[in-house]
From TrEMBL:
It comes from Naegleria gruberi. One of its GO terms (cellular component) is cytoplasm. GO terms for biological process: proteasome-mediated ubiquitin-dependent protein catabolic process. InterPro entries: CRA_dom, CTLH/CRA, CTLH_C, Fyv10_fam, LisH, Rmd5_dRing, ZF_RING_GID, Znf_RING/FYVE/PHD. One of its GO terms (molecular function) is zinc ion binding. Residues 144-211 form the CTLH domain. Keywords: Cytoplasm, Metal-binding, Zinc, Zinc-finger. SMART domains: CRA (SM00757), CTLH (SM00668). This is Predicted protein. Pfam families: CTLH.
């Protein structure tokens, strides 16, 4: 596989060669025009005949022709090298994995693209895209992401007040909700604590220990139920007030780590998106990145299956493709007999012997077994009945 730098290097070489070739050809043409003019002059003014200068003319044109050919040859050899690099970098095999049978809805794709722009804060582009693609993103969606993006921006500038305000408002909402979601409540409080922590560290960096102590009293104390150890650690850092001292202290240097801000930003994005029932990452980003990871395996598969449909009956690929952890959202179960993933319509069943099979497999075994309703587990000698099998939820 060629690297990106090979591609750029070869492009630059071809482009340079193109320029020098043009220069050579232009100057050769100019020379030729000049020569023809001088021939014309010789015939008109010096009384020479075509016969006199004919031989010279032919030699001259032949020479120019050879120079043209040479320049073209050199340029095309460079151009074909660039072409080869492109082919290696973007194997034409990729076309093989495009399956016409898979119908994608253009409207849904456009909707996802439009929403992506608003998610990323590219409001102008999003609005233009809405108009051109004829899709509409709800005002709620736009407003919710406008708020989240504004707060993310302020966190990037290391200002915590807007994020804190948002956090407190949602803690209040979560508290007043009929059914308190404990996890949600804990996460929001965790975010609030982390924000206060960063503010406290800012005061330490400014060497304002008096203010820092007051800030801790006012804001950190209420988190002592969950974060007492960390609060103790933070209070110890007061002895190292001031950037230089903090930097010199091995124990407290980590408080200056930029990654604390990145973590808080990530936590805010995660909770913020969950509060509005949206995925943390844009579906467009996720599908493109996951697809990109899957391409090499799909190309291999396509060259083996020679254009056959790569899906099984349940709209799933016939093979498993490993994706990074960031793309693992929930556990899945593949039946050890059929190798197919289970679905709500065909759930996994736990047999009394603790082996798990897809419901369809159990039914198939039952339909071919003489001792029905009793059947033998395909993985151990136990005999079971369908009524004793339990649906497993992952
Ligand atoms: Zn068994």
């Amino acid at each position: 596989m060629q690297t990106d730098s090979d591609l750029v290097e070869n492009y630059e070489r071809a482009s340079k060669k193109q320029k020098t070739t043009i220069n050579i050809l232009t100057s050769e043409i100019d020379n030729l025009i000049e020569y023809v003019e001088s021939c014309k002059n010789q015939i008109q003014n010096e009384g020479k005949s075509i016969k006199d200068i004919g031989k010279d003319v032919i030699t001259h044109i032949k020479n120019t022709h050879t120079k043209f050919q040479q320049a073209h040859k050199e340029f095309h050899s460079q151009l074909s090298k660039f072409g080869k690099t492109i082919n290696e970098k973007f194997p034409p095999d990729q076309e093989k994995i495009i399956q016409d049978k898979v119908k994608l809805s253009e409207d849904i794709i456009n909707q996802i693209i439009a929403e992506h722009f608003f998610r990323e804060g590219n409001t102008d582009v999003g609005e233009l895209f809405e108009k051109e693609a004829g899709v509409t993103v709800s005002n709620d969606f736009k407003e919710q992401f406008r708020e989240l993006n504004a707060i993310s921006q302020s966190l990037k500038r290391k200002e915590i007040s807007r994020a804190l305000e948002w956090c407190n408002c949602h803690i209040e909402k979560a508290r007043n909700h009929d059914k308190v979601d404990e996890k949600e409540f804990r996460d929001l409080r965790m975010l609030a604590f982390q924000l206060h922590k960063l503010q406290y560290v800012e005061l330490l960096v400014q060497n304002d220990s008096k203010k820092a102590i007051q800030y801790a009293r006012d804001n950190l104390q209420s988190f002592s139920d969950q974060n007492i150890e960390e609060i103790k650690y933070l209070m110890g850092s007061i002895l190292y007030s001031g950037r230089d001292k903090l930097l010199k202290s091995e124990r407290y240097r980590p408080l200056l780590d930029e990654s604390l801000w990145t973590e808080v930003l990530r936590l805010f994005k995660k909770i913020g998106c969950r509060r509005i029932n949206q995925a943390m990452e844009s579906p467009l980003y996720v599908s493109i990145t996951a697809g990109y990871q899957a391409v090499p395996t799909l190309i291999k598969l396509a060259s083996v299956t020679q254009g056959m449909d790569l899906r099984t009956s349940s709209e799933q690929l016939a093979i498993e493709i490993d994706l990074d952890d960031e793309f693992q959202y929930h556990s899945i179960f593949s039946c050890p007999v059929t190798k197919e993933q289970t679905t709500p319509e065909n759930p996994p069943l736990l047999l009394p012997c603790n082996h798990v099979l897809a419901e369809s497999s159990v039914k198939k075994i039952l339909s071919t077994t003489r001792s029905a309703p009793k059947f033998k587990c395909p993985y151990c000698p136990s005999v079971s009945e369908l009524v004793h099998c339990k649906v497993v939820h992952f």
